[in-house]
Specification:
402 residues, alpha/beta, Rossmann fold, 2 domains, seven-stranded parallel sheet, six-stranded parallel sheet, 15 helices, 15 strands
Length: 402
Amino acid sequence: MKIAIVNQPLANRGDEAAHKAFLRAICRKFPGYQIDVVFLCVEQTLIDLIKVNAKNVSYINIPKIRGFSRFEQLGFLLDNFAFSYLHPALRKFHRLLKIYDKVVCAPGGMCMGGFLNWDHIWQLDVARRLKKPVLYWGRSIGPFTEENFKKKFFKKYSVRLLKYFSYISLRDKVSLDIARQFEVNANEVVDSAFLEIPSVKIPENMQKIIKDSEYIVLVPNSLTWHPRYKDIPQEKIDEFYLRIIKLLETKFADKKIVMLPQTYKSIINDYEYFLKLKELSNNQDIVVIDENQSSDVQQAIIKKAGFVIGARYHSIVFAINNEVPFVSLSYEHKMKGLLETLGMTSRMVEIQDIFDEKIGDYRRVLNKVETLFCEKQEMPSVQQARQIVQNGFERFCKELSK
């Protein structure tokens, strides 16, 4: 059996963790299958950073040629998909996908929804047009709107694809509800990172920085890269995190603050943003871990933390996976959906509307965060998450082996 895995996100430690756990699990289950992770026009160095070393896994990258994304989008919008094959890289992808028995969409974020990721649905539509069985694994979807022509078109093709897939698993309750609205049958899972707990040591150079002092992990999110927050002044978002830092300094005065960048080698640069917040806070004791530490190392750092407060989805996944107390600053529905599935919404603070001048309420949010800091910090149980993802993976494997 030859399997192609497509649409693997890069430059994000959370997506890296999901990729590694998922690939390792497939390799254990199907050591005789040939598994190719296929990339379209991405930087090779980013692929090298997430590779899983296994005899039956290969990584294939169709070299980048400018303009491919424009051809993808026009192929849809002109209702002439063959037009996209005029681009040499897209034509090569189409030819390559013909050799595979099945196509798997890699775990990751919300590409089928508000981000309007045309590349995401283009790759999957190639598989549909080639009549390949497609398994959509461990994603979030939505939100879908029809406020303009492009969004209406994107929704139409997304629903068509969802109805075509031979297997779908979605990693949060909100996404499952969206699928049901379209009368699409989807399996419930949680994030693929829950498929394993990496066993690595914190590198000596990192250990020297953190030392043996007690620490808490803070993972902010600049947010203005996100469609929902693109019109919010960055200074307003910065001020929110500076207030969070002040709360941490007050409530955890005896603990060091450690920041863990989730993005790397990306225009969304967590590392630089965290350094900026450190400078603005006038707290030189804050430790900003460099962006070169793998997802496995990040989980090892979180495992030894006393507490995690995160405005990025996978910072919360890592906390739960390593049974560390946390507060989730929920900026989009995938975080809320995960905690609803696991019955942990009491550890969530909704921040989606706090920057809105009409309904935003900093004080209410900060008060809730402070209340959660003061409560007895119960260790989250990860057993339910592991059971859900394992059950979903077993169903996935049955479909893959047909």
